[in-house]
Design brief:
heterodimer; A: 247 residues; mainly alpha; Cytochrome Bc1 Complex, Chain D, domain 2; two-stranded antiparallel sheet; 11 helices; B: 270 residues; Cytochrome Bc1 Complex, Chain C; 63% helix; binds protoporphyrin IX containing FE
């Protein structure tokens, strides 16, 4: 806006304001009505949905599901869109940081005098796009199945090793499923396709040794499984050999 | 020399003139109560001059065309107030230690009168506040309300948005059940992957390199002292600017000069 447009705006605004009504009681009445609606919604949700607690936090447990509050789903889903591991830091913080800076600076790069949405096609389109994208990502996050189910058929080379190998494979599959790995990794048909890489054929890409090292010393944001390896080394070993068998 | 007579002293200089319409002073108990209320307010105002500011804030005009979309900001504030009140209630019983946190929330839910209800109001109030703040931001965006002269109010608003999300993040750990614990671990780790400040940020949040005994009390201090204090201060500034600059009119409402001032209507008497 140049100087003339600014003065024009202030003049027009002054006129509109003079023709308006006093804040008290007119706007106050509307605000109070809306506050009552807000209160009613909060009270109704508190009564209907309650405030249940899950099981107590247990740092050595393997049955957890790292799911954020629903309004963080869109951020969590952004992580899944960008897959190559080298780009993960970019996705986790880079994209949100850039979006936040763009949001902060909005009044400084959108300086046009026009305010009607239908005459600001770029701003309005961008706004609608962001609203739809956030809505869609939130829906994706909500629709993602519980990350505690993995059904991968026993590979031929395992079943040929006899029933003991099969049992160990299935036990490992259980441990992995209960550990919530599928919240961030894909296993065949199950699991989320990010933020972590797909593990459907991890055994073909990494030897068991390397898998074990990653589980103990993962790169962020994955949590470490060193507590599990200390508390129940058997389960941890099953986990490693299950992953190594995925080819 | 004749002496000029001094004017007579006023009969009682210390009584103030009677309030119009009340020639005979307050009558009855109600009248006396009213008088007491008025003089108490007068006493405060004489020492603070608050009434001017209050009149300025309450009797400013809102422009023609102001509609229901303009209530989203104040209802966000109302949700914040509700969070503050229910939060104080929860703080009466909550114990931010790794060994006692879960049990203290269980105590609130199961033993305290209306405990689960107030806990539920606090939990779902956060969702309501987040929805309202996004709706309010959408309103100001699509109405072009962030443009001159309200740029600074938009910037303050984005800061309020970030802090509101920080409140949600830091509050999520406090019940200390499995879900909140592991979600927070992953969340803090995600912060750690950020460029430059990332690792420091996640160390600050964890109060050390690992999730430990002091992590929970740190989250608690962030959640109930640091961020809400900053939110309250910025909210005050946000509202001051709203009152100072006035709220926008909806962008499609046209300014029309009053009839008697229109150029073609003005007649000049010579
Ligand atoms: C804690 C959160 C917030 C509170 C309590 C709050 C409160 C308010 C209130 C009461 C108004 C008066 C007009 C109205 O209600 O629409 C207002 C106006 C405004 N707010 Fe907020 N707000 C918050 C967050 C935000 C955010 C996140 C943004 C944008 C990023 C924002 C930007 C604005 C702007 C630009 C105005 C001026 C609008 C106009 O004049 O029409 N606010 N705010």
């Amino acid at each position: 806006m140049n100087k003339q447009e600014k003065e024009q705006y202030l003049r027009d605004y002054g006129t509109l304001k003079n023709q308006g009504k006093p804040f008290f009681p007119y706007a106050v009445a509307k605000d109070s009505a809306m506050a009552l609606v807000t209160m009613a919604v909060i009270v109704a949700m508190a009564i209907v949905l309650g405030a249940e607690l899950g099981p107590k936090a247990d740092p050595s447990s393997t049955t957890y599901t790292p799911r954020p509050e629903w309004y963080f789903f869109f951020l969590f889903e952004v992580l899944k869109v960008i897959k190559p591991p080298a780009l993960v830091p970019l996705a986790t913080i880079g994209v949100p940081t850039i979006c936040l800076i763009l949001l902060f600076l909005l009044p400084f790069y959108d300086r046009g005098a026009e305010r009607r949405p239908e005459r600001r096609p770029i701003a309005t389109t961008a706004g609608i796009f962001v609203v739809c994208a956030m809505g869609y990502l939130t829906y994706l996050g909500a629709a993602a199945g519980p990350p505690t189910q993995i059904d991968i058929p026993v590979p031929a080379n395992i079943s040929s090793q006899g029933p003991e190998a099969v049992a160990s494979f299935e036990a490992g599959s259980q441990v992995v499923a209960q550990s919530g790995c599928a919240a961030c990794h894909q296993f065949g048909e199950n699991g989320n396709s990010g933020p972590g890489p797909a593990l459907t054929d991890i055994g073909a890409r990494l030897p068991a040794q390397a898998i074990q090292r990653t589980l103990l010393n993962p790169s962020a944001p994955m949590p470490s499984f060193s507590a599990l390896s200390k508390d129940s080394p058997e389960q941890f070993a099953q986990m490693v050999s299950f992953l190594a068998a995925l080819k | 020399m004749p002496k000029l007579k001094l004017p007579a002293a006023p009969s009682n200089p210390l009584t103030s003139p009677k309030r119009p319409g009340k020639e005979y002073g307050p009558s009855g108990a109600l009248g006396h109560a009213e008088e007491a209320g008025i003089s108490a307010v007068d006493w405060i105002d004489e020492r603070t001059s608050l009434s001017g500011g209050l009149r300025w804030a309450m009797f400013r005009k809102v422009p023609k065309g102001t509609n229901w979309f303009y209530t989203l900001g104040s209802s966000t504030m109302f949700a914040f107030l509700s969070q503050s009140v229910t939060g104080v209630f929860l703080a009466f019983y909550y114990d931010p230690s790794a060994t006692r946190a879960y049990e203290s929330i269980q105590y609130i839910n199961n033993e305290v009168f209306l405990g689960e209800f107030v806990h539920g109001m606090h939990r779902w109030g956060s969702s309501v506040m987040v929805i309202l703040i996004f709706l309010h931001m959408g309103r100001t965006f699509f109405f072009g309300a962030y443009k001159y002269p309200r740029e600074l109010n938009w910037v303050i608003g984005v800061a309020l948005l970030v802090m509101t999300m920080t409140m949600s993040f830091s509050g999520y750990l406090l019940p200390f059940d499995q879900r909140s614990y592991w979600a927070t671990i992953v969340g803090v780790n995600i912060n750690g992957t950020g460029p430059l400040v990332g690792p420091y940020l996640s160390e600050f949040l964890r109060a050390g390199p690992y999730f430990g005994a002091t992590t929970l009390s740190r989250f608690y201090a962030i959640h109930m002292l640091m961020v809400p204090g900053a939110i309250a201060a910025l909210m005050g500034f946000h509202l001051y600017l709203v009152a100072k600059l006035g709220t926008t009119a909806p962008p499609w409402v046209k300014a029309k000069a009053p009839e008697e001032l229109r150029e073609d209507k003005v007649t000049v008497n010579l």
